[in-house]
Amino acid sequence: MKTAMIAFGGNALSPRGEAGTITQQFAKTRESLASMMHFVENNYKLCITHGNGPQVGDELLRMDLTHDKVPPIPLGVCVAGTQGTIGYMIQQSLQNILNKNNIDRAYINYNKPNQEKIGNITSIQAQKYLDSGHFQSGSMKPKIEAGIYFLRHHDKKIVITSIPNIKNAIGGKSGTIIRK
Prior knowledge:
The structure is a single chain. The protein is α/β, with parallel strands linked by helices. It folds into 2 domains: 3-98, no CATH class; 107-179, no CATH class. Helix content is 49%, strand content 15%. It is built from 7 helices and 7 strands; from the N terminus they run E-H-H-E-H-H-E-E-E-H-H-E-H-E. The strands form 3 sheets. The protein has a 3-stranded mixed sheet. Strand 3 and strand 4 (116-117) form a beta hairpin. Helix 2 (22-41) packs across helix 4 (75-98) and helix 3 (53-66) packs across helix 4 (75-98). It starts with a strand and ends with a strand.
């Protein structure tokens, strides 16, 4: 599997000439990640890194304007806080992009004449389907991989479904259930 390291600076999220509101930064994050989906679709492992210069500058200005009402924080804490905020924007945006397929469950032979719904399976069977190439990188594959990891390290059952089908999935009427 190929690996790509993608670094985008804080200026990519908050370019000069824009106010740098959180809404604008989320939009720039989604825009940047959408252009990176080529790598996901071509089975790359991704390492995403980022800068945060403008965000730290804005945070320092906020502290300067409010220092008489709210005690300022040290620069290192300010840097860490803005890094966390950008990491959160990347994680949320990437998750939203990967979940846009809105598929109600996992399938084997997806979009083929012999497509079959996957209802209840074990993590061993899920791994076999994964190893056989049944799940696409930009769609179901990361969900199955995350589910198998979760079962291996945390719990006994996961459910894969779309947002509109959550109620039915909880009731066992929809979705794919994978158990240890």
